[in-house]
Amino acid sequence: MHCPFCRHTDSRVVDSRTSDDGAQIRRRRQCPDCGRRFTTIETAGLTVLKRSGASEPFSRAKVLAGVRKACQGRPVTEDQLAVLAQRVEEGVRAAGNAEVDAHEVGMAILGPLRELDEVAYLRFASVYQAFESLEDFESAITLLRAEREAAAPDGRPDRIPAP
């Protein structure tokens, strides 16, 4: 690390702290030549490898844009979408890879989106799981129903009680 004041090629780390929920490391450094102190912020880069072979930095905004399209017309708030995008990023980073396939990012969206809104989940899944027929939709809906019924304590799907 070059000193920003005298351009000396070395520096000594005086203090290190994590910030931004552990996604960044803030380091306080001191130049051994001029003695001045400065701060650096280090982040771990996450690159997305696209189908075309190109790679680009991971973008939470792109996740939001894709999920927003799937949730269009659904009762989902911007705050819920922001939390979903954060969960997706944390999940992708937790895998520990510096480079991740774009398809894996899409698949990482499915779980949190399913919890948020089942209709939006089906919209999104139809693209990322490459639904090709009505049977694909039917099997996905059947699976959703079966899991919902299994999760209900009385064995029935969640229903609004009659007045």
TrEMBL record:
Q: Does the keyword Nucleus apply?
A: no
Query: Which cofactors does the annotated protein need, by name?
Result: Zn(2+)
Give me any GO biological process, just one.
Answer: negative regulation of DNA-templated transcription
InterPro entries per UniProt:
ATP-cone_dom, NrdR-like_N, RNR_NrdR-like
Q: Where are the zinc fingers (unnamed)?
A: 3-34
Gene Ontology molecular function? ATP binding; DNA binding; zinc ion binding
The UniProt entry, under PROSITE patterns, shows: ATP_CONE
Give a yes or no for keyword DNA-binding in this entry: yes
What does the UniProt keyword field contain?
Answer: ATP-binding, DNA-binding, Metal-binding, Nucleotide-binding, Repressor, Transcription, Transcription regulation, Zinc, Zinc-finger
What does the cofactor field's note say? Binds 1 zinc ion.
**Entry function:** Negatively regulates transcription of bacterial ribonucleotide reductase nrd genes and operons by binding to NrdR-boxes.
Alphabetical list of NCBIfam families matching this protein: transcriptional regulator NrdR (TIGR00244)
- List, alphabetically, the PANTHER family matched: TRANSCRIPTIONAL REPRESSOR NRDR
> What's the protein here called?
Transcriptional repressor NrdR
